[in-house]
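Kindly inspect the following:
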Amino acid sequence: MYRVFACITQEHHYGMLVLAVIVCVVGSCLSILLSRRMIHASDRRKLLQLSLTSIIGGATIWSTHFIAMLAYDPGFDHGYEVVFTSISLAVAILGLLISNAILAIGKRGPYHLIGGAFFGLSVSAMHYLGMSAYLLPGEIIWELDRQLISVGLGAFLGAISYHRIARPYTRYCWLGGTVLMVAAICVMHFTGMSAFTVLLDSAYQVPPMAISDENLAMLIMAVTGVIFIIGFASFSIEINIEHETRGQLKHAALHDPLTGLPNRMQLTQKMAAIAKRLEEAETEKVAVLTIDLNLFKQVNDLHGHAVGDTVLTTIAARLSQNLEADEFIARTGGDEFVALKRDFRRVDQVNAFAERLHALIVEPIDTATISVTVGASIGIATSIGEGRELDKLLHKSDLAMYRAKSEPECHICLFTAEIDQQSHDRLVLINDLRNALENDQFELVYQLQNNLNSLEPTGFEVLLRWNHPDRGRIPPDEFIPIAEETGLIRDIGLWVLRTACQEASDWADSYNVAVNVAPQQLVQPSFVEHVADILMESRLPPERLELEITEASIIDDQAHTLKVMHRLKGMGIRIAMDDFGTGYSSLATLQAFPFDKIKIDRSFVRDVHHNDQRAAIVRSTLLLGAALEIPVLAEGVELQDELDFLRSEKCNAVQGFYFGQPLSRDEMRKFVTASKQSKAS
């Protein structure tokens, strides 16, 4: 009798034994890595990973076992039975399939431990089935206690190995999982090998059809080689695809999808890196340039968004292709860009950079059908005179850009203390405007509207005035744009409408009242309901209310505005187009929208009797109104000659300082009372 364990330690081929360990380590590493990816995969990809991991893991167990068996030379004839040798490989793969499936589906609880224990049991099943295929000239006698120990050790180490896979503590836990998996396979194998002895008997003969060591070695090399190559190729391909995908996602996250320029996120990262340099080196300088395209909205409105996209992509390509070292540009909004410049000594160098960018932008852009030209307003702030905090420099360059935009003759503006003071004053004004309504600082004045033939008053247009407690009366053209930009115009506009309707309902005569409606009011979902509530509260007949809407209110969202206008007209309210002629789509607007009145802007009425161009515009508008059967009112009439010209051209109604300055509430009430008494007498 011989103990196989003693033979392994004394009569074995160390090279083959090392090869078995190498195969076990390589296969275990690959299995662990694929298992980790399998856990986080989904749907069909998870199923593919499960199959591949199970095949590689099963082949690793099988190859390790039989290479270790080849390392031992018992000194007498031996071989391997074909069927059980093949079945042992299938058992190993099937066992790994089940254990990995348990690992894959069990995201909570002890499923990973159960899967790991089943892995150890699969190693044991493969081992003892493989040993049954080992043919010797004698009888194998098994020791049950050693068998149970080998099975227990395999299950225990397998469970810990899978725990490392499913619950990693660090990014290197897969190495620990690999070591434990190798230990589970090797410890189980060698413990199992010590669990039997061989009783030689000449009556037992090795069948001639048994697989020899040489043939088994070739079979193992073929199976292991093919499977490992497939596994490594699959893993490598997936890693490369993942890296490419991550690269694409990173590029998409940091670049504008339309123009390909860096986006706001990459700008933030770039600014953080520059800020660090500014902290480390006092000699480091940076300039921030904010760029806004002029007339770009008109390009979209007139020619469509496809042309607008072409403009943006062309400008972006020009800018990116003409950047020098230490220059950077990003698209931060629809038609907004931010540029950074480092490595300069004088502000003049930054101005030259801004001029270069401006020249690239204003160059005509040829599309398939038209040639488009846009302008640009550029604001500059540098660390030389405006501090070294990038966020503040960005804000200051933004303020300088708005100054450049407000001054048509100045397309590039360097931030100055004056701009800073104006920005501060604007913020103070915004804050005061927020409190003006609550503190009852607004009042309405009333400008007469008169029939041109009889010159009799037909109604009033209400105008808003702001009586500031410290600055006195602030002009509307100063605070109305701010109210519209900040959205405060919504609440202010409702106050104006409510106050005007309540006042008009108390007039002794049935004059009409005209109220301006801002674009921000029209887009409010509840605007029509608010108007209906105000009419009900004030008891003002709807036909006495006229809402004045500018073309800007219509162009931004024509479908919604048309729907709102029809609902208002359905209530009996009249709609007037205000400031006619100042837009660029007036004719189309009049055809599409149900207006009850056209108001010619005061800029065309002033000195109309001396200016042939203005006279032509006014005549055209009056002819258009007559053709569409829409009454026309001319604003801004101040002179008798202007009035005579409009009367000769058969204008319907007028308003302006010719009939007096806008009336306060008390003056208006006196006027209405006097008018009523005059008619009665």
Observations:
- DSSP finds 25 helices and 21 strands in the chain.
- Residues 596-655 form one domain.
- The first strand starts at residue 2 and ends at 3.
